[in-house]
Amino acid sequence: MDAQEILWWRVESTWESKSIPIGDFLFSVRELTFILSFILIGSLIAIFVPFMPFKLLIFFIFLLIGFMLSKTPANTVPWELTLVYRFFFLGKERKPVPVQTPKIAKQEEMLATIPSIPIAFMGEVSVEKQEQITLFVDGRERGSVFVSPSSQRYRIYYIPEKTEAGVHEIEIRLGNETITRTKVEVKQA
Fold first, then answer.
1. At how many degrees (to 10) do helices 52-70 and 29-47 cross?
2. Where do you find CATH 2.60.40.1930 in the chain?
3. Does position 49 have pLDDT exceeding 80, yes or no?
4. Is the pLDDT of residue 108 over 60?
5. Which pTM was predicted?
């Protein structure tokens, strides 16, 4: 696991904060979810047991398991969220999908600038692992930035050189997929 993939909460989340009073005790949403889920599972299993003492034993065992699991501290990402992530998302090969088209200063087909004045292209993409966003000017690579699951926004600059007068095609790609394409006219200063 990369160091960039580690997540944590700086402030205690609503999921973890003990804000629900029941009797003399305070419970978090996470604790109540665990306890009630295991009570429900224990009750459903106990329905099929014929003798009352065994029903109570099964019910209290599941109550105890739910209580113990709800009290385990979550220093980084709670283990139940890690299991959900691993079960539903890990191992599925999906193509990165852009969240939104990058916002360009002007929504015209062609942007204009003079040499040494940068144009910023910004946007946000949804990726599952670290990916490279590359800026191409007339088919040649001119710069790149990295995005990751924890940092999905990007900003990449095109700074025209003094010898680059004329119209140029700008293309921004995520891997081999084009995110945006526009034209820039570089005027002499």
1. 160
2. 97-186
3. yes
4. no
5. 0.42
